[in-house]
Design goal:
Radius of gyration: 20 Å
Shape: globular
Helix content: 40-55%
Order of helices and strands: HEEEEEHHHHH
Number of helices: 6
Strand content: 15-25%
Length: 207
């Protein structure tokens, strides 16, 4: 296709075999393939914004599955560039990652130090992943995350993904967070647990 997917009209998409209520297969230059039943296309200001797929599978060039049909509806964002970034969740009511500080304690040094420590944990996990860190480093990062930030489910997932075999305590804590949270958080955590299980199964087969 000559242009970004977001800039095509509905009629132009149909001429390329992309239409709602039909099976659609998109193969990107990156090697990612999206195949599923296109339910709807969300448009704003004559642009395609989101394409929603049911019964959808997303795979990489080497066959790794990034999304499974059993995980529900796959909402694919469509666009050519990121024009702005917000340092937090787009919907803080549904996705309250961090508690908003009160005006009385906005400058609290302890709270600031806690956030700094949390960000450093994320950075350490990223460095370990980028450098293909050792199993010992991965275990240490996972243990520290579980001890210091047991309620930060996203951090726990990032730590778990470093390990070929996820530490049982991490899985137990993530499952407990899923059961104790709202429906949306439960869905997100269960989605992540399914990804971890798929990754570990693939690792066992490769070994």
């Amino acid at each position: 296709m000559e242009r970004c997917l977001s800039s095509y009209t509905i009629d132009e998409l149909k001429r390329h075999g992309i239409a709602t209520d039909q099976a659609v297969r998109l193969e990107f230059l990156s090697g990612i393939t999206v195949a599923g039943h296109l339910q709807q296309i969300l448009r704003r200001e004559q642009k395609n914004i989101v394409m929603s797929f049911s019964d959808c599978t997303v795979t990489t060039l080497d066959g790794q599955r990034l999304f499974e049909p059993a995980w529900g509806v796959f909402d694919m964002l469509v666009g050519a560039e990121i024009v702005s970034v917000f340092g937090g969740s787009a919907d803080p009511i549904r996705y309250p990652l961090y508690a908003e500080p009160s005006s009385e304690h906005a400058g609290d040094e302890h709270q600031s130090a806690e956030l700094d420590g949390l960000y450093e944990h994320y950075a350490a996990i990223r460095r370990c992943r980028d450098a293909s860190g050792s199993a010992a480093n991965a275990d240490e990062l996972a243990a520290n995350a579980l001890k210091r930030y047991p309620n930060e489910w996203l951090l726990l997932f990032e730590a778990a993904e470093l390990q070929p075999a996820c530490h049982p305590a991490l899985l137990e804590r993530l499952q407990a967070l899923a059961e104790g949270g709202n429906d949306e958080r439960k869905r997100l955590i269960n989605y992540g647990l399914a990804r971890l299980a798929t990754k570990q199964e693939r690792t066992r087969h490769t070994a």
